[in-house]
Amino acid sequence: MTIIGFLVLLLIAAICGGIGQSLAGYNLGGCLVSTVVGFIGAYIGLWMAAKMGWPHLFEISIEGKPFPVIWAVIGATAFTLIMALLRKLFTGRNNL
């Protein structure tokens, strides 16, 4: 994978993570955190889709590497909600 392909993949992951955090109504951090949330969301979303037997929706191929945009957003939303609930549980603050 070239540098340009990797940077495009990071940009798409950051956008998916940001959208997922917006849908959850909770912000875990800045741009770097959104990128990490986007990648984690892609793994969680693909895992959920495989367990439920759902098809891959709207995959973007970057230099032969598919990135599942819809599942990344759904997974990022689920991950953000879980992190917000865990933070509320452990800190006792109402951060939602």
Structure description:
Helix content is 70%, strand content 8%. It has 3 helices and 2 strands. It starts with a helix and ends in a 5-residue tail after the last helix. α1 crosses α2 (31-52). The protein has one domain (3-91). The mean pLDDT is 88. It is mainly alpha-helical. It has a two-stranded antiparallel sheet with strand order 1-2. It is flat, with a radius of gyration of 14 Å.
Structural class: mainly alpha
Q: Determine the strand fraction and express it as a percent band.
A: 5-15%
Number of helices, counting only DSSP H or I runs of 4 residues or more: 3
Number of strand elements: 2
Shape: flat
Reading the helices and strands in chain order gives: HHEEH
Oligomer: single chain
Number of domains: 1
Mean pLDDT: 88
Strand order of the largest sheet: 1-2
- Spans of at least 5 consecutive residues with low confidence: none
Radius of gyration: 14 Å
For the sheet with most strands, the description reads: 2 strands, antiparallel
Helix content: 55-70%
